[in-house]
Structure of WIPI1 protein:
Amino acid sequence: SSLAIGTTTGYRLFSLSSVEQLDQVHESNEIPDVYIVERLFSSSLVVVVSHAKPQQMNVYHFKKGTEICNYSYSSNILSIRLNRQRLIVCLEESIYIHNIKDMKLLKTILDTPPNTTGLCALSINHANSYLAYPGSASSGEIALYDGNTLKTACTIPAHDGPLAALTFNSTGSKLASASEKGTVIRVFSIPGGQKLYEFRRGMKRYVNISSLVFSMDSQFLCASSNTETVHIFKLDHLTDSRPEEPPTWSGYMGKMFQAATNYLPAQVSGMMNQDRAFATVRLNISGQRNICALATIQKLPRLLVTTSDGHLYIYNLDPQDGGECVLIKKHSLLDSGKMEENKENDLQPALPQSYAATVARQSTVPSTSTMPGYSEDGGALRGEVIPEHEFATGPVCLDDENEFPPVSI
């Protein structure tokens, strides 16, 4: 429901509560060349890093127009992650963990393996605040750290090659990863690290996965790369608990195929058992960095794709049948929120006919307000919502309960 972008002139914050409407919440031109902007869910707290001062993190209350604090580090800041409990600053060879309520530095993880892209993930559920980052520069080992207890949780041997992407689901109970090859995506249980799912993105070519994200209900996992295809996988069953096939010729052959894998080398049989994409999107661009998100807007599941040229594409995702997602809206993020109509859809109804089945089933699609373990305040478990007036007694104090306006769905 919220989108933040950094630009050469500053940064912009948007609110997205409908497909047609893209509302600009805030624009700042005080700091140029912003390459990191992270907003604390829907609150007024925003963290900004600029190319002008790449070693300095600035924390603002943008509604008041005040700077809460700033911190400087020994080398360039590569990424920042935050939830209601912790703020993580990732440098190339160290990670800093702050208590977000008073910005006190709680822990410094020194001498981490070289991490030139600042790859790390933080659970948005503050009840666990798990942190994941590369445990090796040469292999796909994941270091899992408990940001609340400030102790190492476990190490997960996820891939053979170096890691390229990491992401938690909304409750912090699952962690997805991809290596630099980009052919296989794996999902592990947290905090134990057992492998739950394995998805094959493709076999023909290696790709650079730039975005990996769960849906808020953890039913879907989306991966985008430097190619024109976005893949969406469905986590509806474990690979070792497949449902019975119907008594058909294809079902019979499927059973024979499954049985044959028992006699093949483990690597080959594992590859055959991997689940392929449930839904896909063919972008009009290729080779351009993009970020994806799976969101529920107006009670329907949507795929959002933001590209580095400043556009937001919104697609319909059929949660029952999958298949090719339909582009329904294109927004420009660089023209003060001005919207651009998708020319291909100008003569089509707002919701294409191919998606009619999904629209008819919209009452069965979970909304964010009914998803277990999630509430609209931004990832806190039910019963653990922190009112803003109790959020902090220190300098990071968001002053009113209207910081989190109701989400229109």
